[in-house]
Amino acid sequence: MKYLIDDALVVTMDQNMEILRSCDVLIDNGIISAVGKLDAEQKQNASVINASGKLLMPGLINGHCHVPMTLMRNFADDMDLQTWLFNYIFPAEEKLTSEDIYWGALLGIMEMVATGTTCFIDMYDHMNDLVRAAEESGIRAQLSRGVTNFEDGSDFSEHKGLNEAIDFYRQWNGAANGRITGAFAPHAVYTCSTDFIKAVIKTAQKFDAPIHVHLDETRVEHEDCLAKHRKTPTRYLYDLGLFDRRTVAAHCVWITDEDISLLKDKNVTIAHNPTSNLKLASGVAPVPQALSKGVNVIIGTDGASSNNNLNMFEEIHLASLIHKGVNHDPLLVNAETALRMATTNGAAALGIKNLGIIEEGAKADLILVDMDKPHIMPVHNILSALAYSVQGSDVYMTMVDGRILFENGEFKTIDKEKVRYNIQKCYDRLFR
Ligand SMILES: [Zn+2]
After folding, report:
1. Are residues 300 and 386 both part of a single domain?
2. Which domain holds residue 402?
3. Domain check: are 173 and 195 in the same one?
4. Which of 23, 37, 145, 324 is most buried by a 10 A CB count?
5. C-alpha atoms less than 13 angstroms from C-alpha of 266 in its C-beta half-sphere
6. Which segments in the chain show pLDDT lower than 70?
């Protein structure tokens, strides 16, 4: 399919942060094939999307999520992480069936594409059902089967979760024209024994696969690890060799200056989840310190049970504000930095070239934002408007791999009514 996006204001997110006005963008076969003023011949046979009054930018990359947790939205709130996770979330998750995961994931994907997310990084269980939702919807995703094991041991060849993770990676990594990629996901230091983490690292090495892990989210995790291993969680995983794989480490709220140097040394990406960390009162991650040392930082929503939405524009907004507030420094995490964390930095974390940018040859993962809104005008500064004024609900169109998933309030690949009906059914069975 060939599309012409006509007369857009384009925020390229290229290195120079170039902004193009009244610009045409041609999309052919999933790739941005031309940017600029195009002649009649180039426009031939293209389906035209009128973008006057709209802003075109790369789609947002949600750096850390558990998408089926939409089912537990507003289910367990106003409590600390340990209580929330062990007393509410883990017991509820034990009851989830394949159908729950599938519909919960579709609901989350609907919310994401309607608020400008074109790609998400996720770890969960029942991955075959989650990936079915991602595959059918057309969204891009890096997915992994989260694994836990509390006991040490020498042989994990019969471990159910790890075997599922291996089967999942084998079957799905690189599927759907490369839209779906895989990773291995030892859940966290406090849910995995040392021997088990070693086994997961060995498996990831065998498949040359990346890692997705929760890291140093709470003070309890930090102090327990110090007491048990005499090391911070970061130092502990560094010494085990986990970071020798390309890694996305979610949260990193309690990391020390030395930890930041270790993460930088191994090019680990930090997935910053401002809402989730605030809501569970985990703390505020030292993101400005990590950025100043050159660590790649991305932004995630975390699951909808600790957020309680999957709206990346809200996370961009918060990520740019909270560090100014807690550090008493208005210069920290400016609008451009926050937007990079949600676009180009996400592409770098995934190791996908030509993603998170509007330029010739890039993947056509992009969004149109309707700027003709009272809460956005007048636009003195385009980047400030995006970081501080635009809401997820201002997204007009979302395209992934050159395919329109959402346009003008309509979902093109997902049956909204069917999702609504089935979510209610899942909710009734699980919680009523
Ligand atoms: Zn998480």
Report:
1. no
2. 2-59+355-411
3. yes
4. 145
5. 25
6. none
